[in-house]
C-alpha cells in the first residue's frame, strides 16, 4: 500500500492482469473484499482453466445445455446480443480461434488458412442457445467455445463500483488492466492516462478527467506477437478469423457502465474511425477516443470528459458537435 495525498492504492494480479484499487480511506479490509469479489467472478467466467461455469458450457458443446448462475446467464445474453448486431466485430463464440492463435499466451502461432476456415465455422453466435426459464446455455456444435475476454472485465468493474457504493464509499477507482471504472468526483474528477501505443514504460498520449464514468481501452499493442516482420494482435475479426487490420492502434470508450465500454471498444475497432464516429452520433451516452497508426487522436465528442494532449508528436482532432 502507498499513499498519495489522501488516496490509498491497493494492487493485486487477477485475470492475468495487474489490478489497481484507489480509495479515499485507509481500508485494507475493504480492499481485500474487493479483490475477493473480483476473484469470485473470475472463477465463474474464466476460460483459462477449469472449473468455471463458462468452461462447463464449453465442455458440454454439442452434447447438452448447462444451467449457470444468473450473472453468468445475463452476461452471456448481453454478449450474444452484441454479437448479433448486423456487421458486429464482437463475437462471443470466437473461442475456438482465440484458443488456436493463443495470442498473449505461451505457444502462439499463425494457424494455416484452412484451419482458420474450419474454426470459423464453429463461431456462429446464433448457435449459442439460451433457455431463459431453465437459465441454461447450449452450444449446438461440438468444438464451439464461448470467450468472454472482451466483456467480462467491464462487467466485473461495474460490480466493483456497485459494491464500493453500497459499502458507503463516495470516491474510488478500480483499474482491471485496461478497464477503469470510477466512483464520485474527488477534487474535480479522476485523471486517467491514455497510453502511448507500443511505447516502453508509462508514456502517455494524453490524459482524461472523468467523474462517475468508465474508461475502457482496447489496443493492438497490449497482447500481440511478431512473426516474419508481421504483427498479430489479440482482437480478431470474426469475419476472417485473423486479427482486425485497420488504421487503429487503440480505441478508448467513455461511458457510464464499463460493460458498455468493453462492448463498444470491440464494435468500434471493427468499424474504424469514420463509421465509428457516425455510429456514435446515435449514442450520446457513449464517447470514444481513437488513436491511429498515423499518430492522430480523434475524439468522437467530449461531453462527459476533459482531454489534454500530452504528446505533441500526435495530432488532435475534436469532432465535438
Ligand atoms: P478486449 O479488446 O476487451 O478483448 C480482447 C479479448 O477478447 C481477446 O483477448 C479474446 O479473448 C477476445 N476476443 C478476440 N477477438 C474478439 C472478438 N472479435 N469478439 C469478442 N471477443 C474477442 N489472461 C492471462 O494471461 N491469464 C489468465 O489466467 C487470464 N484469465 C482471465 C480471466 C478472466 C475472467 C478474464 C476476463 C480475463 C482473463 N485474462 C487472462 C485476460 C484475457 O485473456 C484477455 O487478454 C483480456 O480479457 C483482454 O481484455 P482487453 O480489455 O485487453 O481486450
Ligand atoms: Mg472489450
UniProtKB/TrEMBL annotation:
It comes from Pseudenterobacter timonensis. Gene3D superfamilies: ApbE-like domains (3.10.520.10). InterPro entries: ApbE, ApbE-like_sf. It is an enzyme of class 2 (transferase). Belongs to the ApbE family. This is FAD:protein FMN transferase. The lineage of its organism: Bacteria, Pseudomonadati, Pseudomonadota, Gammaproteobacteria, Enterobacterales. Mg(2+) binds at residues 150, 262, 266. It catalyses: L-threonyl-[protein] + FAD = FMN-L-threonyl-[protein] + AMP + H(+).
Amino acid at each position: 500500500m502507498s499513499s498519495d495525498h489522501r488516496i490509498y492504492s491497493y494492487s493485486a494480479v487477477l485475470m492475468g492482469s495487474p489490478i489497481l484499487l484507489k480509495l479515499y480511506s485507509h481500508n485494507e479490509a475493504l480492499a481485500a473484499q474487493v479483490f475477493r469479489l473480483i476473484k469470485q467472478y473470475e472463477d465463474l467466467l474464466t476460460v483459462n482453466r477449469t472449473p468455471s461455469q463458462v468452461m462447463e458450457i464449453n465442455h458440454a458443446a454439442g452434447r447438452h445445455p448447462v444451467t449457470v448462475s444468473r450473472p453468468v446467464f445475463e452476461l452471456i445474453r448481453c454478449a450474444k446480443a452484441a454479437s448479433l448486431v448486423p456487421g458486429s466485430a464482437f463475437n462471443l463464440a470466437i473461442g475456438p480461434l482465440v484458443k488456436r492463435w493463443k495470442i498473449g499466451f505461451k505457444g502462439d502461432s499463425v494457424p494455416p488458412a484452412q484451419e482458420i476456415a474450419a474454426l470459423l465455422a464453429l463461431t456462429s453466435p446464433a448457435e449459442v442457445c439460451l433457455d431463459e426459464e431453465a437459465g441454461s446455455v447450449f452450444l449446438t456444435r461440438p468444438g464451439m467455445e464461448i470467450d468472454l475476454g472482451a466483456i467480462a472485465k467491464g462487467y466485473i468493474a461495474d460490480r466493483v463500483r456497485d459494491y464500493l457504493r453500497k459499502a458507503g464509499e463516495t470516491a474510488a477507482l478500480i483499474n482491471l488492466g485496461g478497464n477503469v471504472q470510477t466512483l464520485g468526483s474527488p477534487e474535480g474528477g479522476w485523471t486517467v492516462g491514455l497510453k502511448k501505443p507500443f511505447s516502453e514504460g508509462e508514456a502517455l498520449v494524453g490524459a482524461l478527467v472523468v467523474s462517475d464514468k468508465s474508461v475502457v481501452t482496447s489496443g493492438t499493442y497490449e497482447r500481440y506477437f511478431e512473426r516474419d516482420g508481421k504483427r498479430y494482435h489479440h482482437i480478431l475479426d470474426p469475419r476472417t478469423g485473423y486479427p482486425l487490420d485497420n488504421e487503429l492502434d487503440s480505441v478508448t470508450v467513455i461511458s457510464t457502465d464499463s460493460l458498455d465500454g468493453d462492448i463498444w471498444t470491440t464494435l468500434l475497432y471493427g468499424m474504424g474511425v469514420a463509421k465509428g464516429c457516425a455510429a456514435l452520433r446515435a449514442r450520446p451516452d457513449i464517447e470514444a477516443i481513437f488513436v491511429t497508426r498515423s499518430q492522430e487522436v480523434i475524439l468522437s465528442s467530449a461531453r462527459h470528459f476533459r482531454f489534454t494532449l500530452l504528446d505533441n508528436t500526435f495530432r488532435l482532432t475534436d469532432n465535438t458537435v
